[in-house]
From TrEMBL:
Gene3D superfamilies: Nucleotidyltransferases domain 2 (1.20.120.330). PANTHER family: PAREP8 (PTHR34237:SF1), PAREP8-RELATED (PTHR34237). It comes from the Bacteria. It holds the Pfam family PaREP1. This is Archaeal PaREP1/PaREP8 family protein.
Length: 118
């Protein structure tokens, strides 16, 4: 399996894991899986285009590129929520309702970006 396909596979796995963790009300773990799903789809897109993203900073900068390319600022907003979820894994400060709401938004982001990875 090539690395791009591995990122796509992990994206799906992490998204399913997040849904299961939300049902268990394990919001910090669900938060991290949502972040991971987001990062994996972005890494898959970059790899398809010949770029390797190896840090949070490189992922963040690439998201800006994608947002400009697609002329879609919602990508920046949604990615900001993914970052909040990543922080929530460590600090558990988001209300459960926020994590659940952000999960739906992250799914929208992934649906928007997925065709670019295929």
């Amino acid at each position: 399996m090539n690395k791009r396909n591995r990122h796509i596979e992990l994206n799906g796995k992490y998204l399913q894991d997040a849904k299961a963790l939300l049902k268990k009300q394990d919001y910090p773990q669900a938060s991290e899986k949502l972040w991971g799903a987001t990062a994996q789809i972005i890494k898959a897109i970059a790899l398809k285009r010949g770029k390797k993203l190896r840090s949070h900073e490189s992922i963040s900068k690439y998201v800006v590129e994608l947002s400009k390319e697609l002329n879609d600022n919602s990508i920046l907003d949604y990615f900001g929520l993914a970052n909040s979820l990543h922080q929530n894994f460590y600090e558990n400060w988001l209300a459960p309702e926020m994590v659940s709401r952000y999960a739906k938004i992250i799914e929208k982001l992934i649906k928007k970006l997925r065709p670019l990875a295929d």
